[in-house]
Amino acid sequence: MNASSNPETQPAAGGERLFGIGAAAERAGVSQRALRYYQQLGLITPQGRTPGGLRRYSQEDLARVARIRQLQTLLGLNLDEIALVLRSEDRMAEIRLAYHAEGTTCAERRDLVRESLALQQELRAAVEAKRLGIEGFLTDLDARIGKTRSLLEQMTAPVTDPEQAGAGR
C-alpha cells in the first residue's frame, strides 16, 4: 500500500505528508492518548484535520513531540514546566522573525532583544530550580548511602572484644 492510499498518511495541500494519530503516535514513540493529552494541554496543535474531524500531524508536530519527550527525559521537566519552555521557545522564534523583518526599527529591535533576554533568563531560572532540586535529592541520597555503608561495615567488621566473640556461642 502506498502513502496516498493509506488513510493514516495523507499528503496535505502543500504536498507535506500528514499522519493520522495512530501513525503519528507510532513514529513519535508515544501513545495516541499521550498525543491527545499534549493537545489538550496546548503543547501541540495538529497540523490539520480531515473533513470527518480526525487529527493529522505533520513532521513539525512530530518534532515537537520529540522535544517534549527530550525535556521530560533529559531535564526531568513535568508537563507544566515543558509548557513554559515551549511557549518561551515559540515566542523567541517569533522574536527572531520580527527582529529580521525588513520594516523593524532599531527601537523595536532593542525591545525584542530585551524580551528575548527576559525569556531566556526565565527559562534559566526554571532549569536552575530543577537542578537545585536534583542536587538536594542527590545530597540526601549520598547521606543515606553513607549511613548504609557504615552499618554494613559495622556488621562485617571482625569482632575484637572477647566478650562479644563469646556472646555469639
Question: What this model shows, in words?
Answer:
The protein has helices at 21-28, 32-40, 59-74, 79-100, 106-156, 162-167, and strands spanning 9-11, 17-19, 48-49, 55-56. With 169 residues, the protein is mostly helical. The strands form two sheets. It has a two-stranded antiparallel sheet with strand order 1-2. A two-stranded antiparallel sheet has the order 3-4. 14% of the residues are buried.
Short description:
The chain is 66% helix and 6% strand. With 169 residues, the protein is mainly α.
Characteristic terms for this protein:
single chain, mainly alpha, Multidrug-efflux Transporter Regulator, Chain: A, Domain 2, 2 domains, two-stranded antiparallel ribbon, 66% helix, elongated
**Structural class of the helices, strands and pairings?**
mainly alpha
- Number of helical elements: 6
Which range does the strand content fall in? 5-15%
Rg for CA atoms:
27 Å
| Unreliably modeled segments | 1-5
Helix percent band:
55-70%
Number of domains: 2
Order of helices and strands: EEHHEEHHHH
Overall geometry: elongated
Q: Strand order of the main beta sheet, please? A: 1-2
N-to-C CA distance:
79 Å
Mean pLDDT across residues: 88
What's the arrangement of secondary structure elements?
Elements: E1 9-11, E2 17-19, H1 21-28, H2 32-40, E3 48-49, E4 55-56, H3 59-74, H4 79-100, H5 106-156, H6 162-167
Antiparallel strand pairs: 1-2, 3-4
